[in-house]
Amino acid sequence: MKIIVDAMGGDNAPKAPVLGALQANKEYGTQVILVGRGEEILQVMKDNGVEQLPAGIEIAHASQVIEMCDDPAFAFREKKDSSLTVGLELLKKGDGDAFVSAGSTGALLSGATLVTKRIKGIRRAALAPVVPTGNGGAVLIDCGANVKCPPEYLLQFAFMGSYYAQKVLGRENPKVGLLNNGVEPSKGTDLQVEVYPLLQKAAENGRINFVGNVEAREAVEGAVDVIVADGYSGNIFLKTMEGTGMFLAREMKKMFKKNFVTKLAAVLVSGGLKNFKKLMDSGEVGGTALLGISKPVIKAHGSSNDYAMKNAIRQAASFAASGLIEDITAHIEEMRLPAAPKE
Amino acid sequence: MKIIVDAMGGDNAPKAPVLGALQANKEYGTQVILVGRGEEILQVMKDNGVEQLPAGIEIAHASQVIEMCDDPAFAFREKKDSSLTVGLELLKKGDGDAFVSAGSTGALLSGATLVTKRIKGIRRAALAPVVPTGNGGAVLIDCGANVKCPPEYLLQFAFMGSYYAQKVLGRENPKVGLLNNGVEPSKGTDLQVEVYPLLQKAAENGRINFVGNVEAREAVEGAVDVIVADGYSGNIFLKTMEGTGMFLAREMKKMFKKNFVTKLAAVLVSGGLKNFKKLMDSGEVGGTALLGISKPVIKAHGSSNDYAMKNAIRQAASFAASGLIEDITAHIEEMRLPAAPKE
């Protein structure tokens, strides 16, 4: 398994991607192509006591870097020698099995769609993070790539999310829920009302295990394995979760830092606190899968450190090994509406 | 100040509303009309050592109870002698200054709209809870009453939420944000894109302090005093917050219950834990204001205990004393779009 890694993307680049790649290589034996400015990549290695390129690590030179201020829709084209564009070209050519970047989400999404291309028949690629829920995590699809969605997009998100939960998270017969403000089929905006019967039909045909509408609270508590949403409401769900987690973590910190006695309490419960932090740490999961692209692409969190990058690389490898894209391709006809324009 | 309280609404009725009313009466001197089955109300008092109706507490008999299984849109009409309908009629007649119910949200909303009526010019009443945020709470408007909203509704929500934050929460020049998946004016669905310039114009005219789009994470962290949303996404926001809070509270409990040492830690930090729980307890706030109705109406949480009911009664009293409805009425022309149908 060979993973292509954007060495220049993210707040902590090139250090975090380079060190994450070295760790993944060492721990899991994953081969990595680091894409970016060769001299900077080598310098990071040198600064960390690695004088020679380890076996299984390659460098693909790319002179440009896509910055957060670049227009995400055009950056990959305007900067043809950026680490992102070069990496996606390598992926397209088959030089590696998956691509990981902690750079701009928008640029990665546009680049992956236009360079690597979507799976034939898939209308839009979606961002599918695994969010921390009471059942050990659920796939949220979409969380922001597609704000305006016709019903067919959500039908495809449901299928792709279900395959991902099964193939990558190892859930058997994953429960698929439509994010809504109530459980009755009449609930939601026009979009949810139209999508509901489509998912129900797919369930009747035995294609997905659609369990109906799921309210946000129950979704967080772990009622489903896959949360289907348009990008707007998926984003509200994801960011509210993150915000609430951060807010409560800060309040908890205050509580433990108050005085000597509370600091002692923190020591007594330190093992649990570590697990608690892990629960809320996006770095644990690694990154967000871009589902619908013809090759595995993982968006790592912009603030990823080397540990998070290592996890994202591991996740990319298991995505590539899962046969997920082949599965989506094989079942594409079930995810299309008769009225949809042919592509 | 006299508050009309639905003695039969909520999971813990009639006990919680009756005891909450007694406490509010004792602590704040609030006068209360308890609406419901007289004998049951008196029995609750008797069971709690109150043999005689205290001064300032009245009972208005209503023989029927609206159950959760009743159709919320028609229940208040079909059960004309329900505590909800009788209470709202009393409110309309001016026998009390505000109405509090922990019963069905839908029935309360329909009843308040059709019995007590909306403020002239207000297109839809909205549910406006105060959600726990980093800045000590923010008004979320709407959180589920209106799933499908034209832009004018959200313009009115922004005004009403702003007045509420100012008059009831005591925020000076409250910051109003439009819940969105990014800060740029182009972000969101068609609705948010259309609402943005309306709010901007209201801000330019010095009517509200619109600070732009607010992402869910920043809203939780306390970036604004008023979060403007359609009922669908407001519901996702609210329920995700609740779910995440409950999920993390449960994980924290597990952490502290693990063994003798962690239990000791819980004791050492018990004061802080109590505050932490308060932070996530909807009972602290009391209830959700129904804004846009011509008289103050508060929806208490269905699971309210007597403490939460007492708080809801206190909140109803401060709503009634605030002059909020008069303020909305005085500024109604600023909240209307020229194209909107006259009412």
Structural class estimated from helices and strands of chain A = alpha/beta
**How helix-rich are the residues of chain A, as a percent range?**
40-55%
What kind of assembly state do the chains in view correspond to? Answer: homodimer
- Uncertain stretches of chain A: none
Number-wise, the strands of chain A total 12
> SSE order of chain A in H/E notation?
EHEHEHHEHEEEHEHEHEHHHHEEHH
Inertia-based shape of chain A: globular
Describe the structure.
The structure is a homodimer of 343-residue chains. With 343 residues, chain A is of the alpha/beta class. Chain A is built from 14 helices and twelve strands. Chain A has helices spanning 15-28, 38-47, 75-78, 83-93, 105-116, 151-167, 190-204, 216-221, 231-257, 260-268, 270-280, 282-285, 306-321, 324-330, and strands at residues 2-6, 31-36, 57-61, 98-101, 126-128, 130-131, 138-141, 175-180, 209-215, 226-228, 287-291, 297-300. Chain A has a seven-stranded mixed β-sheet, sandwiched between helices. A five-stranded mixed β-sheet of chain A has the order 6-7-10-8-9, sandwiched between helices. Chain A is globular and about 60 Å long. In chain A, 57% of the residues are buried. Chains A and B meet through α8, α9, α10 and α11 of A and α8, α9, α10 and α11 of B.
